[in-house]
Design brief:
By secondary structure, this protein is of the alpha/beta class. The protein has 16 helices and 10 strands. The strands form 2 sheets. Strands 3-4-5-6-7-8-9-10 form an 8-stranded parallel β-barrel, surrounded by 8 helices. The chain starts with 14 loop residues before the first helix and ends with a helix.
Length: about 450
């Protein structure tokens, strides 16, 4: 049956006609006050979008062969256990591995024993900065023809910890030497945007700070001639519960990076590792966390993330455990294999609402990025406390909405179960840890929205 002429008998309806019909149905109520709402980013969201919304705005689409991998994280405290876990989870469906490396003595040969690294995507999170062990790792990865992202992020460490690994000069010297070892398959630099999201930055801030953060590396490495015509980079992004905005955020990030790289004359595609946000996760009614992470992983895939690493529903209060990790991995496998999300990153292309959001987030982020650069750059803004202050302002605004119930968290600030008891289940401390120490800048602190109310409930048990 040929349906090509199915809608020709129906006249086209303009955006103006749709709005007039809606205003009639409102029976005198104000259109803007009733149906238009403003996001935390200052974007006015309309009740409907039309093809006219895409007139005269650019759009950015992913390559048609773009795909995504199911990731899982492994803490390499014990080499044999980490190796055994990697082999096991690869057998059970994981497609990319995210290794957290705590010390310089890690035996990478033993870590990769029995693992076929060809075609496998590897990510690393080093809790130290040292030249020789990382050089040995790069050499090993090249021998094994692996594709890897080392995610060396000295500015991200400064922002989170308040101090350099060593000092400004030595950190940059090590970074420069490591970057010279990189290839198209082994990226050295990483930018961690998840810190900004988890500490309460809105999406425009996340994008602008991430771009300005990356620009610091470009400025330094171009000057030192460590970068020529290619510059692979990996971004780590935390995805929250604002479903369509998060899709647009990831699309905007890739677009912004490509635009920035072009200004330096560099051909560079970024890799995006997406993880669920910690900010909206809860201690009470913890099973709801599974619904939150499923929605967030869907946003990540639709936005075009390259790898998605899910968070276990009990991650904020339980140590790593096989059950929680299996559920988290299976959420992704169900999306990919049974939810037909294998090529889902293409679904968002051309959608009026998402394309409009992507364009608005991109434009607003560029404005803020230019303001940061005009004021002396991201590192200077960090040292002056400007970034920290702006994130705090955004976080306080979001916290107020949460406390007033305008941002709803089921089981926490809405529909609480008074019978829930959690005091005896805490294996990890789920709140912000305060420890007085000397830092050269004020660190950016991650904090969940539900912390204050949860502490009160724990005290009342």
């Amino acid at each position: 049956m040929n349906n090509t002429n199915l809608f020709q008998e129906f006249p086209e309806v303009s955006a103006k006609q749709w709005k007039q019909k809606i205003q009639m149905d409102l029976k005198g109520a104000d259109y803007n006050e009733t149906l238009v709402w403003e996001s935390l980013e200052g974007i006015n969201v309309k009740p409907f979008y039309h093809q006219e919304d895409l007139k005269n705005i650019p759009t950015y689409s992913l390559p048609k062969d773009h795909n995504w991998s199911v990731g899982q994280s492994i803490y390499v405290g014990d080499i044999q256990k980490a190796n055994a876990k990697a082999l096991e989870i690869l057998e059970k469906g994981a497609e990319s591995l995210i290794f957290t490396i705590p010390n310089e003595e890690t035996d990478f040969e033993a870590l990769f024993e029995g693992i076929n690294l060809e075609g496998l995507e590897l990510y690393f999170d080093f809790e130290f900065l040292a030249l020789e062990p990382i050089k040995k790792l790069v050499s090993l990865l090249k021998d094994k023809k692996a594709k890897a992202h080392l995610n060396i992020d000295i500015i991200g460490h400064l922002a989170k910890d308040g101090n350099w690994y060593h000092d400004l000069k030595k950190d940059h010297e090590i970074l420069t030497e490591l970057v010279s070892l990189g290839t198209l398959d082994i990226s050295i630099i990483g930018v961690d945007l998840s810190l900004y999201q988890n500490s309460g930055a809105n999406m425009v801030q996340q994008l602008a700070y991430g771009l300005a953060h990356a620009n610091e590396y470009l400025n330094h490495l171009i000057t030192s001639s460590a970068v020529e015509k290619s510059f692979p980079i990996a971004f780590k992004v935390a995805v929250g519960s604002n479903y369509f905005f998060e899709i647009a955020k990831i699309k905007a990030l890739r677009w912004l990076w490509k635009s920035l790289a072009a200004e330096y004359g560099i051909k560079s595609n970024c890799t995006i590792l997406a993880v669920p946000s910690k900010r909206n996760k809860t201690l009470y009614d913890y099973n709801v966390n599974m619904l939150r992470t499923t929605s967030e992983c869907m946003s990540a895939v639709l936005g075009g993330a390259d790898s998605v690493c899910n968070m276990a529903y009990d991650a904020i209060y339980h140590k790593d455990n096989e059950f929680g990790e299996r559920i988290a991995r299976n959420q992704l496998l169900l999306l990919k294999e049974e939810g037909y999300f294998i090529e889902a990153s293409q679904f968002a292309n051309g959608t009026y609402y998402i394309e409009s959001l992507t364009n608005q987030l991109t434009e607003k982020a560029l404005v803020l990025f230019k303001q940061i650069e005009k004021a002396g750059g991201f590192l200077d803004s960090l040292k002056k406390g400007m970034v920290q202050r702006k994130i705090k302002e955004s976080a306080e605004k979001e916290q107020q909405l949460f406390d007033e119930g305008k941002i709803v968290s089921l089981g926490t600030n809405k529909y609480q179960n008074p019978q829930d008891r959690m005091k005896d289940n805490l294996e990890l401390y789920p709140f912000v840890k305060t420890k007085a120490r000397k830092t050269i800048i004020e660190p950016i602190i991650e904090k969940r929205l539900a912390e204050a109310s949860e502490q009160k409930r724990l005290n009342d048990e």
